[in-house]
């Protein structure tokens, strides 16, 4: 009965969230001070020295596009509106400014709609290479580039979709999976370890530490990863290694199917909305849509061959 009550209340939360989700108002333009820009420049210069050897290939492919299209450089801090428009054109993700920390449930729910809640403040100039909490260097240098990658955007959204209507204990597991992938994920590329987590890609010290022989490495498995304890104010003693972004996505989808819900969730990319599937009629409509897509796929494959 307790589980049923949780699911019922969660269902109401899903409907409520769908009704009030961000409407897409213009993002605020921030005039940063000369001192703030200098701090950004210090972080930018030091990190960009490491990216070619430490970041995953997807990150290194996308970073020059942000330099070209969004004004990424050491002499000015890019504006959210430019970045959000670039991401929307690339994968449908958008940025939404937030003044403080959100609950895990609210933050993950944003990802379901391809909305990333981000801060616009910058760390104190006296410690440009360290921040105790996420700042704009973390958001723009750590997170943004990979949100322009379709496979990464998809698995990030899968975490969000899985969270909608999930009981609290599963929210904790999903938030932990987010921590060890989107924030502190490693992947193996051409037999070498590379970083793709934003917490690593925005930290000069931990980026180097994570690829050393000091931390413990484990293969990514949501069942195991979701139970892993972790520190917040020091380097991670353990990292989880992914084979690819698609591999992470498939494992997360499989894990999401174990979450007790009496309804399904589907994201409609055409309307940029989330549908709660709880009737046979909706499922029939979904099946028809999938059938139509498969017909297009078969027709195109025959043409290509």
UniProtKB/TrEMBL annotation:
Xref: InterPro entries: ArAA_hydroxylase, ArAA_hydroxylase_Fe/CU_BS, ArAA_hydroxylase_sf, Aro-AA_hydroxylase_C_sf, Aromatic-AA_hydroxylase_C
EC code(s) of this entry: 1.14.16.1
PROSITE patterns noted in UniProt: BH4_AAA_HYDROXYL_1, BH4_AAA_HYDROXYL_2
Keyword DNA damage attributed: no
Cofactor: Fe(2+)
The keyword NADP appears for this protein: no
Pfam name, any one: Biopterin_H
Entry keywords, A to Z: Iron, Metal-binding, Monooxygenase, Oxidoreductase
Binding positions (Fe cation): 138, 143, 183
UniProt domain Biopterin-dependent aromatic amino acid hydroxylase family profile: residue ranges: 1-305
GO molecular function, one term: phenylalanine 4-monooxygenase activity
Family: Belongs to the biopterin-dependent aromatic amino acid hydroxylase family.
Official protein name in the record: phenylalanine 4-monooxygenase
Gene name per UniProt: Hn_1
């Amino acid at each position: 009965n307790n589980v049923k009550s949780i699911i019922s209340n969660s269902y109401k939360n899903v409907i409520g969230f769908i009704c009030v989700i961000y409407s897409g108002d213009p993002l605020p333009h921030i005039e940063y001070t000369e001192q703030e820009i200098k701090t950004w420049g210090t972080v930018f210069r030091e990190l960009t020295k490491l990216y070619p050897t430490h970041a995953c290939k997807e990150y290194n492919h996308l970073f020059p596009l942000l330099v070209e299209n969004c004004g990424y450089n050491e002499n000015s801090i890019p504006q959210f509106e430019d970045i959000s428009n670039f991401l929307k054109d690339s994968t449908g993700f958008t940025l939404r400014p937030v003044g403080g920390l959100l609950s895990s449930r609210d933050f993950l729910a944003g990802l379901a709609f391809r909305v990333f809640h981000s801060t616009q403040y910058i760390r104190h100039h006296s410690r440009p290479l360290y921040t105790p909490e996420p700042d704009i260097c973390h958001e723009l240098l750590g997170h943004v580039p990979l949100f322009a990658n379709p496979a990464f955007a998809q698995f990030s959204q899968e975490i969000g979709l899985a969270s909608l209507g999930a009981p609290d204990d599963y929210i904790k597991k999903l938030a932990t999976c987010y921590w060890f992938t989107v924030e502190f994920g490693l992947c193996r590329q051409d037999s070498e370890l590379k970083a793709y987590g934003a917490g690593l890609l925005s930290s000069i010290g931990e980026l180097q530490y994570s690829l050393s022989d000091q931390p413990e490495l484990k293969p990514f498995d949501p069942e195991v990863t979701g139970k892993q304890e972790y520190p917040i104010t020091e380097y991670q003693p353990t990292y989880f290694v992914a084979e690819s972004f698609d591999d992470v996505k498939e494992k997360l989808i499989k894990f999401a199917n174990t979450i007790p819900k009496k309804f399904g969730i589907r994201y409609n990319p055409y309307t940029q909305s989330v549908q709660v599937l709880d009737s046979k009629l909706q499922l029939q409509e979904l099946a028809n849509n999938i059938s139509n897509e498969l017909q297009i796929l078969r027709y195109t494959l025959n043409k290509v061959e």
